């Protein structure tokens, strides 16, 4: 197994391993350790099917059905992310950085995507490092970094997510889902990673709406300051080719999907594994 690490240390590309053949317990341990170090791992040209995708994700824990899918009775942990001429990406798409379903009490530990069909241009996914974002805040504004350690923020699905659900499942089911998840969840703004205990900035532009216990004006200003910390060098992008597999740490990273591929067909299958509530850093 060859691990080619990006220049920042965040994100790596792994080759000389055949995930279709299954991984040994030693390989699984090495892959988990590599993910804990680098946050995102890309495995080009693996050509897994859904069963193989699930088996690979299973090295991190039990497969999780997306809570929104589970709320309407779905039991399949494999979700399909699909766009084409008749299903264009929603305005703005997933283009805000987010942690998948951070509006829920528990978030997934890892997500694994496999590309089935990739657009010939565009369509890259980008991840940003929440540990580096917190370090940047500590270096540039230690007072704010200290202050947010004791604060919580409200995460909720919001109108953009509702719009996406309407496109995917129609207005009736989307309304049912919205009712169930609209209240959102309060999470600590600085979280400790469930495995490594590394400290992370746990807010995201996709789902974090309000800092709890401060005025709206102060909350808006603080969140704008924090969201901007995810821009910069500590990012990793993957331009998909059919057959590629990428796994990322949902606690350590935020990600955004593109809407720059027009009406081209783009199909990815996703699976998440393991789950923990974000916990406050000591
Ligand atoms: Fe996502």
Give structural notes.
The protein is an alpha+beta fold and 282 residues long. The protein has helices at 25-38, 50-57, 67-71, 130-140, 142-147, 158-181, 216-228, and strands at 2-5, 12-15, 40-43, 63-64, 79-83, 107-117, 125-129, 152-155, 185-188, 190-192, 199-201, 208-211, 235-238, 245-249, 253-256, 266-276, 279-280. Strands 1, 2, 3, 4, 5, 6, 14 and 16 form an 8-stranded mixed β-sheet that branches. The chain has a 3-stranded antiparallel β-sheet with strand order 13-7-15. It has a 3-stranded antiparallel β-sheet with strand order 9-8-12. The radius of gyration is 18 Å and the shape is globular. The two termini are 36 Å apart. It binds fe (ii) ion. The site of fe (ii) ion has 4 residues, from loops.
Briefly say what this structure is.
The chain is of the alpha+beta class and 282 residues long. It has one domain (2-277): Double-stranded beta-helix (4-Layer Sandwich). The chain has helices spanning 25-38, 50-57, 67-71, 130-140, 142-147, 158-181, 216-228; strands at residues 2-5, 12-15, 40-43, 63-64, 79-83, 107-117, 125-129, 152-155, 185-188, 190-192, 199-201, 208-211, 235-238, 245-249, 253-256, 266-276, 279-280.
Relative helix content:
25-40%
Q: Could you give the order of the helices and strands?
A: EEHEHEHEEEHHEHEEEEHEEEEE
Query: What is the CATH domain class?
Result: Alpha Beta
CATH homologous superfamily (4th level) name: Clavaminate synthase-like
How would you state the average pLDDT, rounded?
A: 94
Q: Main sheet? A: 8 strands, mixed
Based on the coordinates given, report the CATH architecture.
4-Layer Sandwich
C-alpha Rg (nearest Å): 18 Å
Count of the domains: 1
Q: Helical element count?
A: 7
Q: What structural category arises from helix and sheet content?
A: alpha+beta
């Amino acid at each position: 197994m060859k691990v080619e690490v990006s220049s920042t240390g965040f994100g790596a590309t792994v080759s000389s391993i055949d995930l279709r053949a299954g991984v040994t317990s030693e390989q699984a341990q090495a892959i988990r350790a590599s993910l804990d170090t680098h946050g995102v791992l890309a495995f080009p040209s693996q050509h897994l099917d859904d069963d193989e995708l699930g088996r690979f994700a299973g090295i991190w824990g039990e497969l999780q059905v997306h809570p929104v899918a589970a709320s309407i009775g779905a039991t399949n942990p494999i979700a399909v992310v699909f766009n084409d001429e008749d299903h264009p990406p929603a305005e703005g798409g997933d283009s805000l950085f987010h942690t998948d379903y951070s509006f829920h009490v528990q978030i997934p530990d890892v997500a694994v995507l496999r590309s089935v069909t990739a657009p010939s241009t565009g369509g890259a996914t980008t991840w940003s490092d929440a540990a580096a974002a917190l370090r940047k805040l500590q270096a540039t504004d230690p007072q704010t970094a200290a202050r947010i350690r004791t604060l919580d923020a409200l995460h909720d699905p919001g109108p953009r997510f509702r719009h996406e659900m309407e496109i995917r499942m129609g207005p009736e089911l989307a309304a049912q889902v919205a009712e169930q998840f609209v209240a959102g969840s309060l999470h600590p703004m600085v979280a400790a990673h469930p495995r490594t205990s590394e400290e992370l900035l746990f807010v995201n532009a996709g789902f974090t709406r309000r800092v709890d216990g401060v005025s709206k004006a102060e909350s808006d200003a603080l969140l704008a300051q924090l969201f901007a910390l995810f821009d910069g060098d500590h990012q990793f992008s993957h331009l998909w080719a059919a057959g590629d597999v990428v796994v990322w740490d949902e606690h350590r990273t935020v990600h955004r999907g593109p809407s720059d591929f027009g009406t081209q067909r783009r199909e990815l299958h996703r699976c998440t594994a393991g789950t923990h509530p974000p916990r406050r850093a000591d």
